[in-house]
Every structure is written in structure tokens, then in C-alpha cells.
Design goal:
By secondary structure, the protein is of the alpha/beta class. About 40% of the residues lie in helices and about 20% in strands.
């Protein structure tokens, strides 16, 4: 059942329900308690098929996803969501006992927007949920925002949240979209990884892997058909960060 929201809660709590996917009912209750305190509506799922059904039925604002699920594991769920035209932009935070650096990188490569290993701090999870939703909902806000950004044959429509290359749509996750938008808006200036992390996750995400940016940039380039050695859209400045490629 959906929980009633708190009228005094953070405005991002009004963006829609949060789906918490874990086969451990205690973890679902714990996460639900902390999120509901902040005014979020919360729904739960205990396995992979139930998670996909809930995503299709409720269109959650964000998903908190365990990886070790019965019937269909979390990585398969993640990949299925990223292939779905309507759901692919849904922010997903992986919450998993698989906490090694390689596991976290694999999760990001599969399409996760963030990754928090277990055991975890529920308060930190709430901060990450808020930061990711706030960045997602503020994509078109701010004095420096432009309705349309272009880079060669690439067009980024920040009002419609769409990216096209030579008129063909390119589906991006919210993090990938935010990274591309931030880089193009910098108008050729080099942005460090820390600046890009701040643009996507906020300043309260100090322990997010620096490699996170590189993983997302790699996935973004793959979708754009960009070449790291001869970039048309996103160029690497070795030892510093990234900038829009010179056209």
C-alpha cells in the first residue's frame, strides 16, 4: 500500500513512489520507515518479476534495488529496465551486499545511477535518494540552462528531456543525460570528475567512487557512438576531466 506523504517534507518527495526491491522483508521495512519519515510514498517488491511488474504498473520516481533476488536477479532487472522505452530513465540505486569495487563498477555499467553497499546507513540512503531525485527534477532549472543544446549533429532538448543524433533519438538514463547536459553547458570548459559528481549527485555524496564518472561517460559514449580517441561530443582531458569536443 502507498504511504501518505508528509506536507512538510522535502519537495522532491512529491515526485512519485519509491520502489524498494529486496527479498529481506526487514530491509524493506527499514528503508520504508526512513523514506516515509521524509514524506515519500513507498512500495515494495521481493523478487525480480515482482519488481518489473511494479515498475510497469506504478512508474516509480526511483528504484532501490538489491542484486541477489530470487527468480530474476537485480542485474537482470536493471538491464531490462534500461531496455524499456518508457522506464529506461528511471533512477536506480543499487543496494547490495556485493560491495567490492568491481561489483560497484559492474552495477554502474549495467545502468545503475548509484550504488550503496550493505551494511548501509539508512540516513545516507535517504540523502542519496533525495540528491538523485533533486538532480533529476532540476534538469531544466537555473539561469544558465538552455532549452536546446547542440554539439555537431547532436541535439539535447532539456525541456523534453530528449537527445537526438541526426534526428534519431538516443535513450539515456537520467545520470547520463545530466552528465551530457552539464558538459555541453560548460561550453568547452574542462570539468573535473569532482565537478561532474557534484552536478549529478550533490555535495553530500563524498564517498562515491571517482571511477563512477568514467563508467557513466563510457556508457554515454557507447550510446552516442562517440570515439574516445577522436571524440565528436565528449573529450577526455587526461589527468583533469572532461569537456565538450571541439567541432
Amino acid at each position: 500500500m502507498l504511504a501518505m506523504s508528509n506536507p512538510n517534507a522535502d519537495p522532491v518527495a512529491a515526485t512519485g513512489p519509491i520502489l524498494v526491491v529486496d527479498d529481506d522483508a526487514k530491509i524493506v521495512r527499514l528503508v520504508r520507515t526512513y523514506l516515509e519519515r521524509e514524506g515519500f510514498m513507498v512500495i515494495g517488491a521481493a523478487d525480480g518479476p515482482a519488481a518489473l511488474d511494479a515498475i510497469e504498473t506504478h512508474r516509480p520516481a526511483l528504484v532501490v534495488l538489491d542484486l541477489m533476488l530470487p527468480e530474476l536477479d537485480g542485474r537482470a532487472v536493471l538491464r531490462a529496465v534500461r531496455r524499456d522505452d518508457e522506464a529506461r530513465a528511471t533512477p536506480i540505486i543499487v543496494l547490495s551486499a556485493r560491495g567490492s569495487t568491481l561489483d560497484r563498477i559492474a552495477g554502474l555499467e549495467d545502468g545503475a545511477d548509484d550504488y550503496l553497499p550493505k551494511p548501509f546507513s539508512p540516513a545516507e540512503l535517504v540523502l542519496r535518494v533525495k540528491a538523485l531525485l533533486r538532480r533529476s527534477t532540476s534538469t531544466t532549472s537555473g539561469a544558465t540552462r538552455h532549452a536546446t543544446l547542440t554539439q555537431g549533429d547532436l541535439v539535447v532538448d532539456t525541456d523534453r528531456y530528449e537527445v537526438t543524433r541526426s534526428g534519431e533519438p538516443i535513450p539515456l538514463t537520467r545520470v547520463e543525460f545530466r552528465l551530457l547536459q552539464t558538459i555541453l553547458e560548460a561550453d568547452g570548459r574542462v570539468l573535473t570528475r569532482d565537478q561532474l559528481l557534484d552536478a549529478v549527485y550533490g555535495r553530500d555524496q563524498a564517498d562515491i567512487l571517482d571511477r563512477t564518472v568514467d563508467v557513466h561517460i563510457g556508457r554515454l559514449r557507447d550510446k552516442l557512438g562517440d570515439d574516445a580517441e577522436m571524440p565528436r561530443y565528449v573529450a577526455t582531458v587526461r589527468g583533469v576531466g572532461y569537456r565538450a569536443a571541439r567541432t
